[in-house]
Amino acid sequence: MPSADPAAPPAHQGFLQSFGLDVRVAALVLIVDNLVFTATFLSGGLLLGVELLAGAILALITYKIQRHWYGDGHNSALIKALVVGLLTAIPVPLTTSLPVGTAGFLGLVHMLLPKRQNKS
């Protein structure tokens, strides 16, 4: 019997799908964050607006990649995109960030696992 809550995630959605980021997103987040944080730091905070804009653009890119390449649904991709955008907009480097690295690792595992065929 299907779930009564239409906002509930599908029952077949596993841990890797729920918490993983596409590997390309994780790499892009680290690269963009390092670039914009370094620019903001070296400018003494004058380029903070650029960091905020980069966070918004990265959120849009993350949403599209998670939807089309990782297979996330709308809500899941949107939540991940907003988190990525928020973390990028905060003027602190994410290079040593455990969540981004872990989510990227989960995405790598998700990508390497064989796809299960739907037997419906």
Task: Describe the protein.
With 120 residues, this protein is mainly alpha-helical. It has one domain. Helix 2 runs antiparallel to helix 5 and helix 3 runs antiparallel to helix 4. It is elongated and about 50 Å long. The two termini are 15 Å apart.
Outline the fold blueprint.
Layout: H1 15-19, H2 23-42, H3 48-70, H4 74-89, H5 98-112
Helix pairs in contact: 2-3, 2-5, 3-4
Brief descriptors of the model:
120 residues; 0% strand; mainly alpha
Percent of residues in helices:
55-70%
Based on CA atoms alone, the radius of gyration comes out at 16 Å
Distance between the termini: 15 Å
Largest sheet: none
Mean pLDDT: 80
The number of distinct structural domains comes to: 1
Tell me the overall shape: elongated
What are the secondary-structure elements, in order, as H or E? HHHHH
Could you give a short description of this structure?
The chain has helices spanning 15-19, 23-42, 48-70, 74-89, 98-112. It is mainly α.
